[in-house]
Amino acid sequence: MGNKFFYAIILLGVGGVVWGQEESDLSARIDAVFAEYDAPNVPGCAVGVIHDGTYVHAKGYGSANLEHGIPISPSSVFRIGSVSKQFTAAAIAILASRGELDLDADVRQYLPDLRKYDNQVTIRQMVHHTSGMGEYDLSYEVAPGRSFRFGNEDYWTVSEFYREVLNKPLALAPGERFVYSNIAYFLLSQVVEKVSGKTLREFTKQEIFGPLEMQATFFNDNIDGIVPNRADGYLPLKDGSFEIFMTNLDWVGDGGVYTSLNDFIKWDQAFMTNQVPGGAEVQRLMETPDPLTEDTMESYFLDEGAGYGYGLEIGKYKGHRIHFHTGSWVGFRAAYARFAEADYSAVVMCNRSDVASGSDKRRELLDVVVAEFSNE
């Protein structure tokens, strides 16, 4: 890089990850992006930039908990929304690589109680969002006269929601085009459970998070459980104050992973060093976009060659090859960008719902990082 780095070795957080804390122009530019969150009376973000296997920037901005004034740090644990999808997809890839699951089988082979669609829907199509399955319907009725909404008032159990989507018709024919579907990824969690005999939380702990020693990372299928170092999610109000904005939903697959900067670098480096749990075939599957998605997918971030792999958007950002995903759920926003060819990555986890309002700070972070490393 154009800058010379000075490293101070710091031991941080639960499970302790050691990294070099960069004192450079890069950190100053990132600080400027998140400056309005860098105060104890507002929620904010944990921001990490990884290069050559270590964090060259890892810092919290704002508070993880406004009631107790707990600052965000690299050990703060955030819900990461749809960034979770890559872990669901990895579970599917692991089962497929072992021959325990047929990617081209009809999903009803594993979930026979699903409605019989007019056309076969395959596991592979569900992974790539080409299954024709639609999105969540906010008109669900949880009781006579009482509608369902996502957020502080949602109280459905996993089995209740599963029963609701069992009979939901397809939005379009399978294999027609890319249509993002959270329902498909929720159903993939049920496929993992049927095939492995373990919940997605149990399976990923055994096969992914455990082997990578990601001790603070898990699919939260029990929202009442205790989560050490958890950051609360917040909704900004018009008067400048905040309300807690969390979820009471236990279902996972489409989202539901809690993790920290301390842990996430281990997932990133598994890809960078070709040591993905499950082996080379799992990594190959995850990093290969479906050709149909390259023709029909429109990405909010990627500017060319966008396609969808296994829980990852794959294409280019300002001309640079990227593996990428964002996450948005109640009071949380997240993004992960891996520039594998140049060996750098960026991850941001936020506990406020307005991160993408006006100028998206996730995009601003990418711009800063790309500018820094493209000058190497």
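^ that was protein a. below is b, sequence first then the tokens
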Amino acid sequence: MKKVPVNGGSPQTLCELGSGASRSNANGGTWNRDGVIVFATSRAPLQRVSAAGGVAKAATSLEQPGDLTHIWPQFLADGRHVLYFAVSKDSARTGAYVQELGSTQRVLGLKTLFRAVWAPPGPLLFIQEDTLFAQRMNPKTFQLEGEPAPIAEEVANNESNGRSPMAVSENGVLMYRGIGGVRNSRLTWLDREGKPLGTVGQPGDYVRVRPSPDEKHVALTVRSGAGKWDFWLMDLATGVMARLTHDGKSSTSGMAWSPDSRRLALNRAYGDVSEMDLASGKTTVLNDRMMAMDWSPDGSSLICHEAWRGGAWFALPVAAGAKPQRLEETPGGIFDFRFSPDGKFVTYASGEAGRVEVYVAAYPAFAPKRQISNGGGEDSQWRGDGRELFYGTRSGSVMSVDIRTGPVIDAGIPKVLLKTAGRVDFAAAADGKRFLLAAPVDTAPPPDVLMAVLNWSPELKQ
């Protein structure tokens, strides 16, 4: 963690975040006038450090069974009490809490599935059913009083991780992100030159695109409402879709196919990884604190990371109640983990170099290891023979790299293979000659709107 003068100057390191720090878990920080910074990291409790620098120490603790993480801290008016969002496997304990620095006691202010924001001098802002409400919070008991008042509708939120993008300044300016229009895309096949080869199915708001190993079906994460996602299965020959989940609590991290294309590992909100048998529809929870990234080529285990963390890698045997085996830990987190076709190597993305890049490493020793991308990369995938690697960039390019694995990993210079209008999900066919993309249907999809609201609170008017 670093700080930098607003008017310019050199950054100053305040503390090391430790191994396992992950871009996906940098969920907020707060700074009081006494020079104390409280922040969230991949380590589930909140951390605190002096603004002058030092060693970060835990500011909260996970003591209750099922507690997963504490995120989005905010100092209240006295600079001693911190409002934060606590996520638990027990939904009754998930909510907005207040805790004084140095104390182990916390007060539940509101049961909610989304982070809440304190607005000086007193109201608490929170979301219910896409509507933003304000309600007075007693500054001594931290309990809500009176009736909630609706402030705005169609406010963006994400039920799978509790995020709700909003902020309030001390002089009463409220800003939030509105729900943008549906970003319909259509599954489209392209050749290596970017020429369209045909489309599959109907348009939809698709987030994750994972073809089965036999390339007969594609598993999709589809938006089912604001902040809600479900898993679907599409037949690639006919475009017919079948819904796999119905509660809107699927994770946008997606799913992983078994090598025989008969089973799916589904990642659910708050860290459930389940195995679904596609023939019977039977679902078995394998672990309630893991998120699956890929299935081992022999079908015996899943490679996972801990929900709400992401630095450590685990092999999870595919059996109910099986215990995960710790494999490796990577500073900067890991993403988009994929086995090579022979199972002897892996490709993944990590922020260990300061920005997210693509790597290839031997498995399970993770040595030798080599950085493949230069300038950012993610969502890396192998060609079916293991001799070419594809990965995406946030600017919308699909890159190609020749790869040779062995005692020494030899990689060519990355080159642009396809260029798209912004970042899209893609999947490479095993032959490396076709690519399935969730191509936007609209050339200019409706944007998310950043809204500013003035004079919204009676307390602020007073």
